[in-house]
From TrEMBL:
<dbReference type="InterPro" id="IPR036649">
    <property type="entry name" value="Pyrophosphatase_sf"/>
</dbReference>
<keyword id="KW-0007">Acetylation</keyword>
<dbReference type="GO" id="GO:0005737">
    <property type="term" value="C:cytoplasm"/>
</dbReference>
<dbReference type="InterPro" id="IPR008162">
    <property type="entry name" value="Pyrophosphatase"/>
</dbReference>
<feature type="signal peptide">
    <location>
        <begin position="1"/>
        <end position="24"/>
    </location>
</feature>
<keyword id="KW-0732">Signal</keyword>
<keyword id="KW-0479">Metal-binding</keyword>
<keyword id="KW-0460">Magnesium</keyword>
<dbReference type="GO" id="GO:0006796">
    <property type="term" value="P:phosphate-containing compound metabolic process"/>
</dbReference>
<dbReference type="Pfam" id="PF00719">
    <property type="entry name" value="Pyrophosphatase"/>
</dbReference>
<comment type="subunit">
    <text>Homodimer.</text>
</comment>
<protein>
    <recommendedName>
        <fullName>inorganic diphosphatase</fullName>
        <ecNumber>3.6.1.1</ecNumber>
    </recommendedName>
</protein>
<dbReference type="GO" id="GO:0000287">
    <property type="term" value="F:magnesium ion binding"/>
</dbReference>
<dbReference type="GO" id="GO:0004427">
    <property type="term" value="F:inorganic diphosphate phosphatase activity"/>
</dbReference>
<keyword id="KW-0378">Hydrolase</keyword>
<comment type="similarity">
    <text>Belongs to the PPase family.</text>
</comment>
Amino acid sequence: MRSQLLRSSFGCLLTVFGPFPASCINKAVRQTAAAVPHSYYPRKTMHYQTEQRGHPNSPDYRIYFKTSDGKYISPFHDIPLIAESEQNDDVPAKKPKSENKVLYNMVVEVPRWSNAKMEIATKEPLNPIKQDVKKGKLRYVANIFPHKGYIWNYGALPQTWEDPNHKDKETDCCGDNDPIDVCDIGTQVCSPGQVIQVKVLGILAMIDEGEMDWKVIAINANDEDAEKLNCIEDVRKSRPGHLEATVEWFRKYKVPDGKPENQFGFNGEFKDKDFAVEIIKSTHEHWRALVQKQTNAGGIEW
């Protein structure tokens, strides 16, 4: 059975918009994953720990996720979108009354200043983090002068999905079949597989080869600057040039690989926190439809 971490006493999956039934994980899948030779590196992140298999910078490298009691979980489907306060026995706390005070869980895929293109493997059982491979070669992002690698901690919001069957009314583009991406602009450098609580500040509408690829701008709630950054304008005022650098990075990072520059909705302007929260809600609803098998899964695994 899947971990009870996300279940109410009635066996329902707890989400930001209430509980709903969720199917059990295939026991054979978990047994197969457990049988693979591996090295074990416990790294606690809230109620979660990670298990690394294979060697970094190799095609077989994987980072699996487990609960504090050792049960395998999916970082895509089993970690809740809303970050709950810690309580005993992995029992979620109540949500904040105000949406402005809501913190979200972010699964870190790529640490700041690193180049390996790590991502949640949405089409593998248990959805471990792996390094992306294209045409048999491991993928790395180029350094976009004057920056080294990714300029933020980069990752995804769990329990969200940019539905390739849904066309965004603002940009006329369909989703990219992945969880929604997040850029943590905090000062701390995180680790792959780390689960952090973030405060959402705004969002950027990137269009990647015709697909909608939203980029949420957020800050680690434990960062020294978290209290003074509450919206996208705060970022603009306190960190001059950072938002412009973010747009330019996303515009050009595929050019060294022979790809065209990425495009943006809203003329590359960042939308505010309220807009970002609505997009997150929408992708969470699309994820709910996905796990309830109400839409084409597009090869997504559990």
